[in-house]
Amino acid sequence: MRVGILGGGQLGRMLALAGYPLGLEFRLLDPVPDACGGQVAELMVGAMDDTYALERFCNGLDVVTLEWENVPVEAAKFIAERVPVYPPPQALEASQDRLVEKSMFARLGIETAPFLAVDGPANLAPAVAQMGTPAVLKTRRLGYDGKGQWLLREDKDAEGVAPFVVVPCILEGFVRFERELSILAVRSTTGETRFYPLVENHHREGILRVSYAPAPHVSKKLQSQAEDIAARVLDELGYVGLLAIELFQVDDRLLANEMAPRVHNSGHWSIEGAVTSQFENHVRAVAGLPLGSTEIVASSAMVNLIGDHPPLETMLALPGAHVHFYGKEPRAGRKIGHVTFVDDDESKLRKSVEHLQGLIQNHDVSYTARKTS
Amino acid sequence: MRVGILGGGQLGRMLALAGYPLGLEFRLLDPVPDACGGQVAELMVGAMDDTYALERFCNGLDVVTLEWENVPVEAAKFIAERVPVYPPPQALEASQDRLVEKSMFARLGIETAPFLAVDGPANLAPAVAQMGTPAVLKTRRLGYDGKGQWLLREDKDAEGVAPFVVVPCILEGFVRFERELSILAVRSTTGETRFYPLVENHHREGILRVSYAPAPHVSKKLQSQAEDIAARVLDELGYVGLLAIELFQVDDRLLANEMAPRVHNSGHWSIEGAVTSQFENHVRAVAGLPLGSTEIVASSAMVNLIGDHPPLETMLALPGAHVHFYGKEPRAGRKIGHVTFVDDDESKLRKSVEHLQGLIQNHDVSYTARKTS
């Protein structure tokens, strides 16, 4: 069976590495010739709005999936006329526009932060007046890792931000949440569905830094609330593959923040920490194979390597460290790898994370010093 | 870091898959253009006695290792003049000739079955008379999976077998062992050494069928006896990489049967069953990186898929089944994949193995029926 993946970054790379043991073969499509997935699978270089490239890409494939949520919906539809595409184009449509996404959540009875459409600079002040502050203005499309977001602390901040509303935006009420969680769900072409345990995520500068899985102190009720949210979205979208939904926890309520129609950074721990990784289960789902158990092996912590990393030898010398490099050149703000620790003892897990974070900070300092000296 | 692997079969394939997350790149050399490692890594097609091919192969590599124990020693030496080769050529020399190997074991004080050199047809009868029967005649070189071996039940069997002694052979006393075990050891370029727990191996028709790890009912004394055997061989050979030694258990004694200077079929369970797989630790060892923990995650059982396999969907539907296909076409007697189960409950593990073996037998029957109908 030959699987095509739209996008050739680290997610495509890890999908291929998870699928090879099942005897599957992979072809990636990416506009960038040095996309890191090309180190481990066939990489076709082409633009996703180039129908000639898409036509060639599809040739001989049994199924196509994606690792980038901003694949043009038109490209997915073009391919879907030739080869099955999972997740389906309507899942892309729903996730690429924050207003469409939040409206879908609301329609499905899933709680979110309050939100208002802001279609142009003139709409901002009235929206802020209606919503109150603090609030967050976000572009409806193409934001990631905190990019395309502005925090409005007071009503008068609207004035300074208004010039950015050159593209359709959404204004969201600021949620005083206790923590950020994510639920990973997977559904196969046969309808078989599984959920991973809730994950606790820690961001800094808008980028995910650390995930703990399972999230500590999660009641059965909270887990089933999260699974119910995910199940509604899976059903609504006729979804196939892995779906991630980022959630805010406020007391014992969960508010949906956003979804990703693909394998997700907050699921990387599952390579070692779950019986079946999110990558293998996504591949199984789109290939119509039975899903694997989503149970944990033990508790896990995943630390992202952003921009640069301590020496490989230093990290591998940490007891139980599973290092994953993506084959990408270091560059500020870039996700170039991650490290997972698996341990039944959660206090040991936290110590391992702190230890590694110390190494990362020390390394960053010396790196910066080298650069500026 | 670019790693070359001599041999492009399933072991090379799994080494590459284990090394990619460390950011390593791989180039395989194999005489066969459709060697299955070529599906996941750069494959150079060339003969191992072709110095021009070896020269091109080495170009740009940082280290070379092997996945086939019959790599010509001359090829390994030729490469070693250009790029470090691990395990070192002397390890190949010792393992490629059963007489040299057994003599080394004896020299190191490691117990083996009694053995005698049989250099030609005329030497056989005297050797059998001296050794007694039952005994096993084996070619000194190039035997694998039970090929090149003849069981002599009685002295008079020597006559029928004598014509096979056209190549140097070794006659070994027949050992009435309780079970077959293997010890996997790994040593890095820095000298750091780790041992996996003893594995219990079940063969049929000379081919490994099932491994249990850790082997049940292993005393600390037996484990340390095995580690001591492996440590002596590692030291003797200045070994770097993963070394497997097959052992016979007779009461509380261990007899060394043979060694493999490479990752080993009886270590495949470690992909899911150990904190660090034999493949990752071999790669770490030859790359001079710190070794990972060889502790188990839980008990494991590995079942080989030989010749053909039940449908993938059927196997993946078995709870906890980790399926590994090698991307090879089914063919009688060929190792085309394996399945690993990991479970703390050993009786569940045995039931999973029996269940899968039932599927394999049923599938074989139907396969045969289809072929002959």
Descriptive notes:
Two copies of one chain form a homodimer. Chain A is α+β, with helices and mostly antiparallel strands and 373 residues long. The first copy, chain A, folds into three domains: 2-85, Rossmann fold, CATH 3.40.50; 114-173, 2-Layer Sandwich (Dna Ligase, domain 1); 179-372, 2-Layer Sandwich (D-amino Acid Aminotransferase, Chain A, domain 1). Helices cover 33% and strands 27% of the residues of chain A. Chain A has twelve helices and 17 strands. Chain A has helices at 10-19, 51-58, 73-80, 89-95, 98-107, 121-131, 157-161, 220-237, 270-273, 278-286, 312-316, 346-372; strands at 2-6, 25-30, 42-45, 63-66, 115-118, 135-139, 149-152, 169-173, 179-187, 193-195, 199-204, 207-213, 241-250, 253-260, 300-306, 322-325, 335-342. In chain A, the strands form three sheets. In chain A, strands 9, 10, 11, 12, 13, 14, 15, 16 and 17 form a nine-stranded antiparallel beta sheet that branches. The first copy, chain A, has a four-stranded parallel beta sheet with strand order 3-2-1-4, sandwiched between helices. In chain A, strands 5-8-6-7 form a four-stranded antiparallel beta sheet, sandwiched between helices. In chain A, strand 11 (199-204) and strand 12 form a beta hairpin. The radius of gyration of chain A is 21 Å and the shape is globular. Chain A starts with a strand and ends with a helix. Mean pLDDT of chain A is 94; it is low at 366-373. Chain A binds chain B through residues 13, 17, 20-23, 25, 39-41, 275, 284, 289-290, 292-293, 297-298, 312-313, 316-317, 319-320, 322-327, 337, 342, and chain B through 13, 17, 20-23, 25, 39-41, 275, 284, 289-290, 292-293, 297-298, 312-313, 316-317, 319-320, 322-327, 337, 342.
